[in-house]
Amino acid sequence: MAAERKRPWYLVFALLGAMALGTTGACSGWQRVTLYRESIDPLVAQGVSDVADRTAIETRLDAFVHALDAAKARGWPLAVAALLLGGAMMILSMRALGGNGGARAALIQVVVAQAGLNGLSYWLMRDVTEAEMRLNDAAQAAKIHAQVPDRLQADEASRTMAGVARAASPIALALSTLGSALVVVALTRRRARDFFDASSAALQER
Predict the structure, then answer these.
(1) Rounded CA gap, 65 and 126, in Å?
(2) Of the N and C termini of the chain, which has fewer Cβ atoms inside 10 Å?
(3) pLDDT tens profile 99-121
(4) Residue 78 Cα distances to 7, 55, 72, angstroms
């Protein structure tokens, strides 16, 4: 009978991390799929009393919709791919947690594919991302203007928040890529391979 090996502690964290990456990717993909399947709410500027703020929101909403439609040939397949890869990562992570060696091998490939897709989407969808950020900036500025009486102070706060939002996107991509790399390293370490080999051997002997 094959000797039972203890699951390495880092393997559990890696598989949970892979599950989290898969969930995030699937949710992101579904949100982008929804943008193409459902009409965008045109009432985003509703309730904004300042004429300039309302006009800015409406103008940037139109620009976002135009950018989204213009990018549909690349945005739609990227969104579907993100949804499918994210779902596959969640399923494979759960199977690998149960000691399935085949799931481990497939998960490594899917993790690498998702990391590549994230980078590709970041590069190819920059125009849509920028249009969406500009829309969010206008909506956030309207909220700040309604809460802060001093216009100069409100504008400064708006610029600060816009800068933070723009910095968050590449940081999120870098952290996601790092997480994917750590998952792959954990799954390819010798102790992890030995654990899955032992689990597979034990299942075959039953």
Answers:
(1) 14
(2) C
(3) 888 899 999 999 999 999 999 99
(4) 35, 32, 9
